[in-house]
Automatic annotation (TrEMBL):
The chain crosses the membrane at residues 47-72, 78-97. This is Uncharacterized protein. It comes from the Bacteria. Keywords: Membrane, Transmembrane, Transmembrane helix. The lineage of its organism: Bacteria, Pseudomonadati, Pseudomonadota, Gammaproteobacteria, Pseudomonadales.
């Protein structure tokens, strides 16, 4: 049976919430957590799915810890231990870094193009196959899982976008059904909903409701200028601890300057849809030809907005209640 928005599937250490269809408001502000918005105008928005940060932070921090361990072993006269650690870690980290470099050098995939006037999504595979999917047939799922290890429990999550193949548009969806998917990792729960809200708001509200396209934050500034600008912004907003430890020490400890350089180089040229069919499909339409919401979605959005308004009113009332002393 096709899952609908709001449905939750859960197990012992995992949960997945369905955000669409139907694409109703999540109640969260639109936030492009991963820089997925590659291109945006009044007609369509291009969304990409590559993120270099997580892999870089993980591999660089592991390498740093290993190097520090080897240096400490040498200073303590543990030369054999240092040699063994060096040999084992070189094999392991070499394999991991090779995979990261291979992924980095791979050409950017064509973006997903969301056409708000047609209310359709254009999919172009790296092999050149193309088709369109009705907006209200897009499935958005926010999976999360709790990982338990020797240092405690950590919650991980992401956003999964599922699109039916062109010859299966009208077939019902289920969790084991094959389709064209994109999986990104903005984080569990609220972070995933905010990332999805970027796409949903563009299609249902308009381009002014979502952030500007910015796959490289502060890309108009130099790398050092971008760092200084982030620090100044954090201090102006009064976020002293976050700015000092996250934006400041984080940048040096994980060598975020090199990551910034690699990201800028990677996104120097963002791919476009170039086939005649996609170019024609991407054109603007006269207002009278714009596609309309389905009656089901209209009713679902109205009901959801009432629920959000009621929740906001109840929250305001509870916060304004007098406290007995």
């Amino acid at each position: 049976m096709t899952q609908q928005v709001g449905e939750v599937n859960a197990g012992l250490l995992w949960k997945q919430k369905h955000l669409s269809p139907l694409p109703v408001p999540t109640g969260e502000p639109a936030s492009d957590v991963l820089g997925m918005i590659w291109r945006k105008n009044d007609t369509y928005m291009d969304v990409g799915s590559i993120s270099l940060s997580a892999g870089w932070v993980t591999l660089y921090s592991m390498t740093l810890v290993i190097v520090c361990t080897v240096i400490y072993s040498i200073t303590q006269g543990l030369y054999i231990a240092a040699l063994m650690i060096s040999m084992g870690s070189t094999v392991l980290m070499g394999f991991l870094w090779k995979g990261y470099i291979k992924a980095y050098r791979r050409a950017l995939m064509p973006p997903l193009r969301f056409h708000r006037q047609r209310r359709e999504v254009r999919i172009v595979t790296p092999e050149g196959e193309e088709w369109t999917v009705p907006w209200e047939r897009v499935h958005a799922i926010a999976p999360s899982a709790t990982m338990i290890g020797q240092f405690g429990a950590a919650k991980m999550g992401g956003l999964l976008l599922w699109f039916p193949y062109k010859d299966q548009i009208d077939e019902p969806f289920h969790m084991n059904k094959e389709g064209w998917t994109i999986m990104v990792s903005p984080g569990p729960g609220i972070a995933a909903m905010r990332q999805w809200e970027c796409i949903r708001s563009f299609m249902e509200v308009g381009p002014e409701a979502v952030p500007e396209a910015c796959p490289v934050p502060n890309g108009h500034l130099g790398i050092w200028e971008s760092f200084v600008d982030d620090m100044r912004s954090g201090f102006r907003e009064g976020k002293w601890a976050r700015t000092i430890f996250w934006d400041g020490l984080f940048s040096f400890f994980f060598n975020a300057f090199v990551l910034d350089y690699l990201t800028r180089k990677k996104f120097a040229v963002i791919p476009d849809l170039t086939s005649p069919e996609s170019i024609a499909w991407s054109q603007s339409l006269p207002p009278e030809q714009w596609a309309k919401r389905s009656p089901e979605l209209e009713a679902a959005i109205a009901e959801r907005e009432k629920d959000l308004e009621a929740a906001a009113t109840a929250k305001l009332a509870s916060s304004s209640e007098p406290v007995d002393l």
